[in-house]
Amino acid sequence: xxxxxxxxxxxxxxxxxxxxxQAYAPGAAVKNGKVYLYVPDGxxxxxxxxxDRPEGPFEGGKSxxxxxxxxxxxxxxxxDPMGFVDDDGxxxxxxxxxxxxxxxxxxxxxxxAKLNADMMSVQYPATTISDTRCSFEAAYVHKRGSTYYxxxxxxxxxxxxxxxxxxxxxxxxxxxxxxxxxxxxxxGGTSGNNHASPVEYKDKWYLxxxxxxxxxxxxxxxxxxxxxxxxxxxxxxVDLLEYESNGxxxxxxxxxxxxxxxxNLNPFDTVRATTMNLMYGINTDSVANGGxxxxxxxxxxWVRLKGVDFGSGATRFTARAASNTSGSSIELRTGSNTxxxxxxxxxxxxxxxxxxxxxxxxxxxxxxxxxxxYLVFKGGSGAELFRLAWxxxxxxxxxxxxxxxxxxxxxxxxxxxxxxxxxAYQTSWCGGMEFVDVTHNTAEMPATTGECVYIxxxxxxxxxxxxxxxxxxxxxxxxxxxxxxxxGPCQFNTKPAAxxxxxxxxxxxxxxxxxxxxxxxxxxxxQGVVAGSKLNCTSFxxxxxxxSSEESTPILLPQxxxxxxxxxxxxxxxxxxxxxxxxxxxxxxxYIEKNGKQVKKIVVR
Length: 605
Known about the structure:
The protein contains no helices and 41 strands. The chain is mainly beta. The strands form 12 sheets. The protein has a 5-stranded antiparallel beta sheet, with no helix packed on it. Strands 2-3-4-5 form a 4-stranded antiparallel beta sheet, with no helix packed on it. Strands 6-7-8-9 form a 4-stranded antiparallel beta sheet, with no helix packed on it. A hairpin with a 7-residue loop joins strand 4 and strand 5 (59-66). GO terms for molecular function: carbohydrate binding; endo-1,4-beta-xylanase activity. Its EC number is 3.2.1.8.
């Protein structure tokens, strides 16, 4: 709850939902490994789309709730939807809202309904949520134990006794649709409307909401229409959500600091440059492969991390950067942007702002937990000194208490000390996916020490202290064209086709079976393992035989080498969906790249 990663724009209409022209206050739900996003088109209708990851890409867009269907006649605004999946797997959607002069007015304008198993269609009629006193918008449901909590935003001008203006109120029930009773205020007013989302994380509850504290900080427009005199602007906030012994919610106090940091950050893991606690001057943007990098870096700009645990000490810093000028640098400072200098990493020209290279430097006095770590950018007066994709520290012993990586990244051990190493891996959000595109590559990546532990649908890397191999930037890793996004997607929903080429490993919970397309010309094989088994990465043993069957009996290997994930041959299309073949387009423009079922837009400049 202290260091946040910017993943960039994850959804846009009409690109991702052609039936919508607007995307007011969407809500999401997760079921069976898929993310479902419910998006209002102003207050007129609600659309839906789904993805394999929260950051997209989203597909399957369609209209979900329109007009007066299913008890929606008296709902002035069909918006602020949210999805909820109960313990039994049943999905629900909640929506609605309207002003005080709506028909029939506050108290009757919020709805809930069951979703069908596909999470993309509604079981009508919808149910009117009871006892929503002075209700206005922002319907949200969460469940704690056996109690359902329904929260919403009250109107700005309430005439209902005991209800405050512009707050987040809540109800409780033992049923997700009926029997709700008004309980009180969850969050006080914020000088305007609000929208709150209670979330449970690591056995604690948190309330995400927006306050309105940007008036003196920016002239940014809050609405697409360009209203600039609308008072304070919205900013996202989070605070701890606590409960009384009887289950009632303690009213949340809005703070600027937010909740305490849950775990310290481990700098020995690869850190995306767009991960930060605070920043000054810089911007972030996506690059051609869809990854996010820090951009618009000027002299004396900086980014800050909070609670960084260097353990027994770091001695080396590596940054992945691109620049078209020389003479820039990254100063590493603790405490403040003018605090103790622990190292300076010089950034030379790489030939352009899209050509990334690794830059290294020695550091000193980096031990234990530092309250704040600053990356201070130095250079001339150019408009953009360089761009930064990721960085990491090496040397010493990583702390065992550091934060674990997010579930949507490569899953290195928290004790990872050297540069990133890979055995066959599949990211945890690929649960249920069948293929990981991997190949032995002993020429580029000699065998090294360490071991891989197979855990369900992915490998967890545990390199040893003696590791010396360097994988500069992970170039050519699957799903990552130029290596600046750590890892990258490498799963296939369907069997790789002949044109994909390469070698593949068929991954299921509990075992790994070798799979070699008939076009394969080199022997290969994989050790069959069960969850928790370890694969020794010390040396490579050539398999005694190979197989071309689709799902072969595992070829047992006493040892296997360090392997490197490589992308299969992608296919390209123009924005009209017309195929362009498997050669990356050279003409400037925007294209669609499809790799298995991974689809993304690319920009050729």
